[in-house]
Amino acid sequence: MSIDQVDTLIVGAGLSGVGSAVHLRQGLRQQSVLILEARERLGGTWDLFRYPGIRSDSDMHTLGYCFKPWTGAKAIADGPSILQYVQETAQEFGVLPLIRFGHQVLSADWDSAAARWHVLVKRVADGSELQVQCRFLLMCSGYYNYDHGYTPAFPGMDSFKGQVVHPQHWPQDLDYRGQHVVVIGSGATAMTLVPEMAKLAGQVTLLQRSPTYVVARPSRDVIADALRRVLPEKLAYALTRWKNVLTGWFYFTLARRRPELAKARIVQGAAQALPAGYPVDPHFTPRYQPWDQRICLVPDADLFVAIRKGKARMVTDTIDAIEPQGLRLKSGALLAADVIVTATGLDLLGFGGMQISVDGVALQVSDRLSYKGMMLSGVPNFAYVFGYTNASWTLKSDLTGQYVVRLLRHMRRQGLDSVVPQLNDTSVQPEPWVDFSSGYFQRAMDRFPKQGSKKPWRLYQNYVRDLLALRWSALDDGVLQFGKAPPKRPL
Prior knowledge:
Elements: E1 3-11, H1 15-27, E2 33-37, H2 45-48, H3 60-63, H4 79-92, E3 99-101, E4 103-111, E5 116-123, E6 129-139, E7 163-165, E8 180-184, H5 188-197, E9 203-208, E10 214-217, H6 222-230, H7 233-257, H8 259-273, H9 280-283, E11 296-299, H10 302-308, E12 312-316, E13 319-323, E14 326-329, E15 334-336, E16 339-342, E17 355-358, E18 361-362, E19 370-371, E20 375-376, E21 382-384, H11 393-414, E22 418-421, E23 430-431, H12 439-442, E24 451-452, H13 463-472, E25 480-483
Parallel strand pairs: 1-2, 1-6, 2-3, 4-17, 6-21, 7-16, 8-9, 8-16, 9-12, 10-11
Antiparallel strand pairs: 4-5, 5-6, 13-14, 14-15, 17-18, 19-20, 22-25, 23-24
Helix pairs in contact: 1-11, 5-10, 6-7, 7-8, 11-13
């Protein structure tokens, strides 16, 4: 088995992996970096998903990297534009030569004696294996299973005479022109698919078991456009980025402190965008409070426009069974369908399904606490990227990449070989990984680490707090334990 050696190994060549590689190249030019990507293309989510209308549900001034201004016309961008942005970043900052495509990480074992990771890798093309040894392991593999999404076991699905598709594996030859389409789901994917498919389909029905909060927002940012006309590009981008960060923080804080007021405003906004008399309750009035789950953003009110035009409709009910001609609901109604789209969520998967061990002892990730939302208790020289549930993914991705650079610089200056977060405070109580009630999170809590009851183990979902904690706080905080590898014995 061949063995390669590198200073920092990044797993995943998506939005996070490319951004982290740029931070490492800019901040630690003397150290070697390698990126392993299981697929044959970079881009992660933005290359995998090809369903109609695929777009971000965050503005690109915060979903974009801090070091590369987003210059596209639309602040709420489509998937191909985001993929092009990631590809341009990889090309511009010299990341492409660092990537090995078709290399899937199977396991990683930390060797304390050598102060390095032994990472077992499979070449996807032929199934052969190799080992990569690295001093630091950075996981940028996302949080869901790329091989398949989540679809409930609906009774009678095999009897359906039409076509059933999941957005994660969209057939590019699917012809739904003039047909009856039923989209099952109430998340961002469903809200994206419905108005886009309504342009060609005869009728599109969004079938949801329970409603979600839906907010309309212009796809263009007029303030960003104005700033770009009068200010240098980077300054305009930075100001827009902070404007959107603080605006999002304000509305999230309002929702947490005065949930009934926030709920009333969101529901009222939906009522104003819908045709007169359209039932906001039950279709747009959730039972939970705002931001207990992620709020769905619809650019230029496209979902509401499709409903006003009669091209789309909402049905709030549960499925009793799938029949040859459509979906039988608990209410007894039959939703006729030619195509069923199961926008029923992701199958969450931590760290790409990789098995982690320390000195040969396998770890149960759910037994570990998350340090600052990016490292694991008791796991040396290891970090991972996980974005915000209430803001853009890349805000946390950038902070994590910059923090890893700080750590590695400190270790290099001090001649240190290892760093590990150690839980020494007995008053810290384990809590669920994230405070989020969405079904796809709840189904997978046992696959992810816990958070703690107080800092630095607690997740605050707050960019400003994380900025202070990750960019400006002391590294030697009494929780991070730094060390040197034992000296090698002479032969």
